[in-house]
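Consortium newsletter contribution from the modelling node. Members have asked for a concrete example of what our holo predictions look like. Here is one, prepared for the TNX complex that several groups have been discussing at recent meetings.
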Amino acid sequence: MVGAAGGLAAEPDGPGAREGLPSLVPLPVSVEERSGAEFALDADTGVRTEAGSAEARRVGEHLAEILRRSTGYPVPVSDASPTDTSGIQLLLADADPVVGEQGYQLDTSPDGVTIRAEHAAGLFSGVQTLRQLLPPEVESATVTDADWTVPGVSITDYPRFGHRSVMLDVARHFHPVEHVKHYIDQAARYKVNHLHLHLTDDQGWRIQIDSWPRLTTYGGSTQVGGGPGGYFTKDDYREIVEYAAERHITVVPEIDMPGHTNAALASYAELNCDGIAPPLRTDIEVGYSSLCVDLPLTYEFVADVIRELAELTPGPYIHIGGDEADATTDEDYALFMSRVIPIVEENGKQVMGWHEIANTDIPTDAVPQFWSTSTSHEGVRAAAERGAKVLMSPANKTYLDHKYDATTQLGLQWAGFVEVRDTYEWDPGTHVEGVSESSILGVESPLFTETIVTTDDMEYMAFPRLPSVAEVGWTQAEARDWDDFRLRLAGQAAHWEVLDLNFYRSPQIPWP
Ligand code: TNX
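And here is the predicted structure:
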């Protein structure tokens, strides 16, 4: 067995992909080369899925669609059979060694590829690995000619953290359903399993709430820079949730409050302490808005919004923001959270919030999301000590909206420049003083969109940093190595070219 981190890179300094094994990102727990076990896909290859499992079947259909699109082969999907094990098999079985909820084993032979997992989520992860084992042309949207051979390997794999997330801000610039789906597709290929949607902010309210219709019809009518904005109808949102779920991604919706609420305050004068609606805002200032903490109507409003959002959201979390509430006093902030957190709980959901919520008396199942550039935070440390789990997204390590360097046209830089190496070389399990590995829920890379307008912009900022943070969340700490990673990341470029992704050619990576 070759230790996953060592021994695979043939030419540490050579350009492009590593010789021998394909450049897998995130790096699996172990990859063993099997000469003579290569499998060549052809027009007869089918996908066989665990008989009786609708979930395994859905993963199989997902894979078959990708293969049909690029190979042009029919790729039928059928039940696995004990007597014919040729082709690609997706089996639900106790994998050995135990790979957990999201892990898998992938083995090739001249007859086929077998992915075994305990759960469909693991099969889905294994399928993402298989995509990277195939030639990059597998990502083609149209039928292509390629040598559809999978190298001989035996892979055992499971994640370091169960929660790996990306965040998309649809408030500063609205991003329609198709763009969100595109982002979901890109994240899923790197085994990301949560999508945090930043649905509301000062510049726009992007989710339909029937009991407060002006939130979207007025509050959603503009965006940063003054464009037309937009919003998700409930059906749009359901469509995103379903599309994500098919890719084993859980949506975590965020309603940011009590700050970042100008769009709501502009939409309803009665939500303001002075009863006067402020104008809509299209600039990028922060910290000036606050819901009116003393007003009873504020909590009726929050209850309506959370109820309607919870009804639309199958996932366990609702994110209540809580960041940068500079226009709210500390006492008011604590009072606000003490009233809003129970509303989330009454709706059967768990609270997530930016780390400022940990300055108040949060329940232990509430998840503070660490976004600071500092490596200590008393509230987060204390929450972890009481048993809370923390989601890690330190801005100077994971913020995809930040400039790579001084030449980057897009992006902000309040947390400094964030080059690829910065996103890779940090350890979630030791990053924050007093918050150890066992207190970490997972890792997120947020994409705030003050300067991000098009899908090209999104791609440029997310690639290659999204895959980098995804590996931080997936790959075991001791297996991660920058010199090895930069070669594997370079190997991904061929896939991105087929996908026509607008990625940043960081000088830190030896692109082919
Ligand atoms: C800080 S990170 C914010 C956002 C901005 C972002 C830009 C956080 C919790 N709040 O309001 O969009 O910086 O990088």
